[in-house]
Amino acid sequence: MIRKEQNILTVLTATFGGGLKMFAIILFAVAGWKLQGQMPVNITKCIVVGAPHTSNYDLFFVMAGLYKTKLPVRFLIKQEWLMLFPIKNFLLSTGALGINRAKINTTVDSLAELITTSNKNIAVLIAPEGTRKRAVKWKTGFYYAALKAKVPIILISLDYSKKLTVLGPNFMPSGCYKSDMQILKDFYKDVVPKYPDNFCLDIYLDNENETCAK
């Protein structure tokens, strides 16, 4: 009986998850937002950098925009959320991936392995600021996971002044972090976040030396 109930719940949450995606796309349009840009057809696996991240609304508008591309996008959340039943099935159906913050040093390797071993198209959305508050500098895990997995990084931005979710440039990480991050600085410099005072474009510290990974 328990197994039957679990199977029914799995079907219901998966169905509702699909319905949620459609609801997100509709609400995205009703709110007056638009998607600008197109996903490159030749990219099947990638890491998507989402910024600015200053509000709880950001994830919704980024995901809704990505749902419109039909890209099989996944996003990272704290693993604790996936321990709550039946929320776990619901979150998984919308693309959630649990991250164990106690083992944050293994996140890069785990994420790279997840991407390289996937036999399906996959895109993982990451907000490198790591917090809605103003960050000192961006986290670097997204970059080194892409480098290790040998997949491109795609940039996506939210401009609240224009109500635009913008699919921007993509590039293969060269291994020279500071040099590559100039692409991000150029792309995000004129974007208007929900809360501008909380947006950090200090992607790296000025006194950091350039170290190129091999």
Which terms summarize this structure?
about 210 residues; alpha/beta; 7-stranded mixed β-sheet; 6 helices; about 20% strand; globular
Topology:
Elements: H1 2-30, E1 34-36, E2 45-51, H2 57-68, E3 73-78, H3 87-94, E4 96-99, H4 107-117, E5 122-126, H5 141-149, E6 153-159, E7 164-171, H6 177-188
Parallel strand pairs: 1-7, 2-5, 2-6, 3-4, 3-5
Antiparallel strand pairs: 6-7
Strand fraction band?
A: 15-25%
Shape summary: globular
Question: What is the radius of gyration computed over CA atoms, rounded to a whole number of angstroms?
Answer: 18 Å
Number of helices: 6
> How many domains would you count in the coordinates?
1
Decide which structural class fits the backbone.
Answer: alpha/beta
The biggest beta sheet is recorded as: 7 strands, mixed
**Secondary structure tally: strands:** 7
Task: State the end-to-end CA separation.
Answer: 54 Å
* Contiguous runs where pLDDT drops below 50 for at least 5 residues: 1-17
Mean pLDDT: 80
Fraction of residues in H or I helices: 25-40%
